[in-house]
Queue: 2 jobs
Job 1
Amino acid sequence: MNPIRVILQRLAPAALLLALIADLGAVAPPADEGKARIAAGRARFDQLCVSCHGEHGAGVAGSGSGASYGPKLTARSDLAEDKIRDRIIHGKHGDKAMPPWGTVLESTEIEQLVAYVKRLAATPGGQSTGPLAPFDLNDETRINAGKRRFAKTCAGYCHGFEGIGGRAPDFKGRTDLPAEMAYETIYKGRQGADVMPPWGAAFTEEQIWELVAYLQYLGKQQP
Ligand code: HEC
């Protein structure tokens, strides 16, 4: 027999083992990947599901009436992962119907929704589930990316350089701006005495979180 072939045959089980080990590594995703999946699921939930299930899955006020009512999804220890996945894929017929998404969404998109709804279900009742940063907000690279974006897009017109002395409140030394709130404000904008435009369509989720990381960093500086 061809000697190279013999060597390859001897190596085959080892290669198989290596492939298996690599596979096992893929089964347990790093924490950041899990967070990114939940964040992506949340973005999609905001587009497709809030009309019936309410913001952050909290349910819709005046529940029980109208066709577009879905049950609340927070504090639902009865909602197992399999059931969540099954409902999203197949929906449910009835006078209050849950539309099926299995033919509309890719399986990765469905898994992102499952991850987010699972998180909602594990959230105690009444407590709103804010968005979740897909990376560590103290990461210096992210803070610097946010700083560059802030200098380019936000400073000058409304917010001052390094967030001081613009038409908006200073950011340095601010402790009353939780990360989730900052994220929501950048994402949706805000209508106060002045108008803060929404950036949700212009920036990706990650870019917004980098801005939040920078604002959190500024909040820790001396005013
Ligand atoms: C048109 C309104 C509507 C939309 C949009 C909608 N749902 Fe639903 N959803 C429902 C209704 C109604 C039910 C309850 C169905 C039943 O069990 O009778 C439901 C049930 C569910 C359940 C199971 C909850 C339970 O108590 O058993 C999950 C999970 C769920 N929806 C997730 C989603 C997700 C994720 C999206 C977005 C991709 C979505 N829904 C969009 C109306 C909606």
Note: Confidence is low (pLDDT under 50) at residues 16-29, 63-67.
Job 2
Amino acid sequence: MDQGVSGRMWKKRFFAGAWVAYFCIAVSFLFMTALSLNANEAQEVPEEIVINNEVYKTDRKGSVQFSHSEHVEGYVDACDACHHEYKDGQNVWEEGQPVQKCSACHDPLKRDGNVRKLNIAYHKNCKGCHRELAREGGTEAPYRQCTDCHAKR
Ligand code: HEC
Ligand code: HEC
Ligand code: HEC
Ligand code: HEC
């Protein structure tokens, strides 16, 4: 066998192989970008949420197990009972728009004008609705016992 020829052949094959590899990598990058864009478009609605922000000055209470899907499908009619984005005092958030974490706007350490501290916002939202319902009667939504929401520890 002629060493020179097979050497060149090898080189040719190697470069052809390299191009194929580059091509595959490029395609998979495109694919991944498309996937992540897609994920942004259709944000998954969580079923169960463990609310356990580790951003407070002190973390005095246990985490809160929140049945998002029970609330969404059974207890509460509208997403905007809990999700909002205010413009000129009006909630302009609509179902289908991206949902941000409460902590994106509610600072855990300080109140900012109308925007309450994170734990106060949660208590107003969760306990507020439960208390209202209890007043009307006929529901078991917890608002008095801390451990009805906060895990014991
Ligand atoms: C209806 C549900 C509910 C009830 C009842 C409730 N909480 Fe909370 N609480 C929450 C949620 C949700 C948060 C936000 C937790 C987070 O951000 O990690 C929170 C946060 C807190 C925080 C700040 C986070 C931390 O761990 O330090 C404190 C303190 C707290 N609650 C105290 C209480 C006390 C005291 C009671 C009883 C008097 C109580 N809560 C009752 C839902 C509830
Ligand atoms: C009773 C209150 C409540 C209702 C009603 C509700 N949600 Fe939520 N949702 C929450 C809470 C609390 C979170 C957790 C937020 C956090 O982690 O800061 C959440 C989280 C989410 C998230 C994930 C956000 C993220 O980045 O983690 C999506 C998406 C979402 N909700 C969509 C919906 C949709 C769609 C509806 C109506 C069909 C709805 N929610 C109704 C309270 C509610
Ligand atoms: C995009 C920013 C933003 C996000 C995300 C957000 N909030 Fe708010 N929230 C606000 C602003 C701004 C106000 C004050 C509205 C006003 O009164 O002008 C407010 C007001 C509230 C109030 C009324 C408080 C009162 O004074 O009675 C509650 C309760 C509340 N938010 C709870 C939540 C909860 C729970 C979440 C997460 C599920 C959440 N917020 C997510 C911006 C946000
Ligand atoms: C707009 C009203 C509303 C809001 C806001 C709300 N809830 Fe509820 N919640 C209900 C109703 C209705 C029930 C069912 C009561 C019954 O079983 O009779 C319930 C039940 C519960 C229960 C007991 C049953 C179960 O599914 O676990 C927990 C715990 C609870 N909610 C936690 C929360 C927390 C935490 C938040 C705030 C992040 C919250 N809720 C916000 C209406 C609300």
Note: The two ends are 78 Å apart (CA to CA).
